[in-house]
Each structure stands twice: as structure tokens, then as C-alpha cells.
What does this fold into?
Amino acid sequence: MKETLQKDEAQEKAVQFTEGQLLLTACPGSGKTTTLLRRIHYLIKEKHVISSSILMVTYTKAAAEHMKKRYAELYGEESGVFFSTIHALCFRILRQYAGLRTDAVLQESEIRPVLYDLAKKDSSINDREEFIGDFLSDVTYLKSRRLKPEEIIPVSVKDKNQFLFYFNAYENYKKQNGKIDFDDMLLMTDDLFQRNPDILHTLQNQFRWIQVDEFQDINAIQKDIIYALAGKNGNLAVVGDDDQAIYGFRGAEPDIMLEFTKDYPKAVQINMTTNYRSESEVIKHASALICHNVTRFQKDFLGKRKETGNVKVHGFQTRQKEIEFLSDQVHQLMETAAPEEIAVLYRKNSLANGIAEEFLNRGIPFSCRERMASRYAHWIYRDVLTYHRLANGTGDEEDLQHIANRPQRFLSKRCLSAYPDQKRMIAILRSENKEEWQIESSIDNLNDFFSLLKQLKHAGPKETMELLEYPGDYTGYLTAYAEYRNHDDQEYLSIFESLKEDAGKVKTFKEWADYAESYSDEMAKASKRNDGITLSTMHGAKGLEWKYVFITDANEGITPDARASEDRAKEEERRLFYVALTRAKDDLYILYSDRPEGRKAPPSSFLAEIQTTLREQKELETKQLKTNLISKIQSDPDYTAEEKQMILSALQKEKERKQRKKKHR
It folds into this structure.
């Protein structure tokens, strides 16, 4: 072995459990990856298991490659074990037993342009790239749960018929081109097992020992495939942390892990509860949060490191003040720490831009784990420019069709075809087969539209933004579109406010265009860096660790997300915040502001939960200390009866004083 490994009793039990079913729950920083590799090594070297009969299933391709490489580093040799994602495993099975062609699997890079062309013709979709991502997540969700498209409530759009239109187009494209997607591979593999028990039996004999990592993120179809390969009495070891199950939107079902011992009644459960990563204050706060979840394994969360560390919570009046404080602290830390030891985490990617901009202005190096788009690449900015072109006579028919019903003015394509002849447009509206009040409303809207364009004609950037807000009611359109796309409107409104703020810095649209180009170039360069402070969403940070972690925008409505109204969704949000907390090794900073996205929002309820639990624990500890002290005094022969009574009386008075204080609080 090339390096010394930290070991504990739970790890040793897991390594040496080699026959039957094993459920291994692993808290953050408990060494689960190393334990899985040590178990593989133990099977091969101590139990003389043939390496090719061991299947190691990972959540991502990167994880499979990392584990394979890490095994070689630890033991100085290739393992011969099959490290694979569930999708790669199914592809291999279908290629061998069902004749699946290598080019038959639909890549996302192939289908995205097809869906983009469809969305381009759909005037109701603005954020086409994001919509396509949401749509593909909907597809994965319904297939992973074996649902019909009519049975789900899509996230991508509120209109189910519109979702069905895209879904049918997607499926027709695959059929016409002889393609299957990654979700189809799982369904086909499961079907193959059910129709061909001989093939399943062959594979069961081939993979006599199966290990599955990140089991909390498994879905129903993946479970069925794994369980079929293992058989009712096979050697199946699954490892995960139910408290880190954060992919419900992809169809993952944490209940599968919680019910493992029901599916396998003879299974042994081992809890790896010792964290080797974080200092005690981080662990204390994380534990105080996650205990509020009901649907979980009840377990301890212990720390191995002796240092205390720091957890600091700071609130600010504005988000800009929050970002300035963040930048000050990061700059100060960089005097003694490498930038790569520092991370800034946030709930959603749209919150990164303000941070990145401040870092750019201060020369703080950073890298982004997710693609960071400039606000000038956003469709809202394009809408502003479209209004400007149309008002100044440089727009075309496409511009008119694009903007005329933003907000909804109920102006038909036939009506718009007569632009800019206002009288003719009104005549067309009067000829339409609608109720009289609807016609009059559309005419009023049309007149307001022409009035707005007239006001915008000679307006500069700042005045344009103000006019679009009122009387243009463009922000009302943003709120309506957010509802249509099942999004939080503050995400769009905050982008509009940022553009409005930028518009106040320039006088002409030429100056604004130059500023936008420069800003976008700087953001693009910064986003390509691989070093510096890490900026990441909470989801993107899973599995990683840093000495110093800042969590920004810890506000209600952001974390937890405003859409997480049901208990199940709220618990997943709590798990996500727990993941963020446990990325910190030494110091953790939690920041919030009174107006994080342009509107007033209280601090996250998760912060109150943590403080409540810590206070209750402290009161319990104090009570226990007093009980122990009283017991010791009463049994100590060195105290006289009178002295004992005096001490006990003083303790009782102190207790009564605190109770009165608590009552009046």
C-alpha cells in the first residue's frame, strides 16, 4: 500500500463483510471511497475472489475512472475489477446480448439542436437552452419511474399539452433515426432480464460480488437492474448517505436506500459515522440541521479532528453589502491560504454573477464549476434591444413578432402584418371573431404599444429601462413568464434590475453595447480558469471539500427554494444545505441579506433550526452537569449537611431566576 490510511471499527467491519448483503451508511468525510477500494482489495487478496467477478457501480463516469486510478495508486497494480456507471453497464449488456449498435445511443449534443429548432419556432419559449435542460430532466424523471408522459407534472412548462408536444417530437425523432436514449437503455436492460432469464443467470454468475456507490441517488429502474443482477441471496454491498440525497428532480428515490433491509431482510447495516474532514463546530452545526429531517436513518455524526474550527453567520441590509463582505474576507484569507482552499457556494447558478463581477473588479482569481452566462447573453437583454430597434425604425418583422406580446397584448399575427399602419391594424382587430370587450381591450393595448414605442424612440438606456418597467409593464411579463415556466420570478426580475443599474452607468446604447461586450469577455475568460477561488452551486459541490467555505444568500425562498412547499421537497432542500455545510474542513461562513434578489426575504429557516437545536443541546448538557454536580455533592463526605443544603439552595435559586427570565423574554 502506497499511503497510510485512517481506519476505524466500522470501516474494518465493512471491509471484512464479504458474504451476503451489506448496507453501509457513510456520513460526509467518513472515507467511504477508500473503504470500498479496501473491500475490493480484501476480496481479491484475502478471499481469493477472481477480480473480473467484482462489479463496482458508480454514479458518474468520472467517479468510475477516479476509483480505478485510486486503486492502482493505493496497491500498485490494476485491479481487474469492472468499474462502471449503471448506463455503461447496460450499454455493454445490450451490445453483447441484444446487438445494440454503438451509434444507436442518442447523445445530448445531437438532440439539443433538434429541440432548439422546435423551441425557436415556439414564441412562448424565451430561455431555449434552459428549457431544453428542464425538458430532458422531465423525460428522465418519467422514464425512471416508468410513468406515462400524461402522468407527470412537468417542471419544464406549466402547460402539459405543450410538454406532450415536445415529448412526442422527441420520441418520433428517435424512432425515425433508430436511436435510444440513456433512459431507454435502462428500460431495455430490465426488459431483457425479464424476457431472458438465461442471460440474467449468465450475468449473475459473472458478477458474483457487486458494490454500488452513492446508493441514495438511485432510482427505481436502476434498483431493479441491480437487484436482478445480485439475485435474492447475492453478494451485494451498497453504500451511501441518505442525508445527502439531493437528486429527486432527476427521479432519484432515497426511500430505496431506507428500505434496503426490507428488500433484503438478512442484510447487515453498518454505520460509518466518523467524519475525518471537518472540525467540530462544522459537524455540530450540520448535525443540528439534519436532525430536523424525519425520513432518514437515525445515526450519530462524530468528528475525529480535535480542532474546534469556526462557524460564523452574518446578515446584511443589501446583497451588495453581503458580496462586499464576502470579497473582503476572501481577500484577507488569501494572505495566508491558497485560493484553491476557498469555495463560495450558492443555491442556484443565477446568484453567481454578482459575486463573479465583484471578484473581477477586485482582481480575485476564481473558477466556476458550472457554466456562468453573462447577463448580456440573457434573453431579457435581447428583448430590451429589440424594443429599442423597433422604436427607432431599425427593427424588422421578426423583431415585431418577438416583442409585440411581451407583455401579452393579444395582438394577432394578422394584425401585426399591417404594422406600422396603426389604423389598418385597428380595423383588422375589429374584424376578428371575438367578444366586443376583447376587441376593445386589444385596441387599447395596441394604442398603448404605439405610445410606448414613441416614448422609447429617443430614450437612452436608463430611460428605456424605466419606460419598459412603467408604463410598459415588462416586469409584469417577466412574472407571468416565470409562472409559465415554473420558475421563481425573482430570478428574472433581478436580472432586469442588474441591467437597469448598468444602464445608469452609460448615456448611449453604443456605450452600453461596448460595456456589455467588455463585461461578457471578462466573464468568459474568468469562467475558463481552472484555478483560484471555487464558485459552485450546492449541487455542484457535492463530493468536494475546502478549508474555507462561504455559503451566500442563505435566505428563505432561496434555500429552501420557494417552490419546496411539501415536506418531501423541504427535506431535500435541507439535505442540500447539509451538503453545503459539510464541504467545509476548517471554517464556515453563512451569509444572508435583507433583500437578496430585490425583494425583502428573511434569513433561511434552516438557520433558526440549527440555533434551536444547539440551544436545546446546551440546555440539556447544562441540566446533566447540574444533575451530576448535585449527585456528587450529596455523596461527598467532605461536605457537611448544612453546606450541602446551602449549595443546593443556591442552585435552585439560579434555576428559578433563569425560568423567570425565559418567561419574560
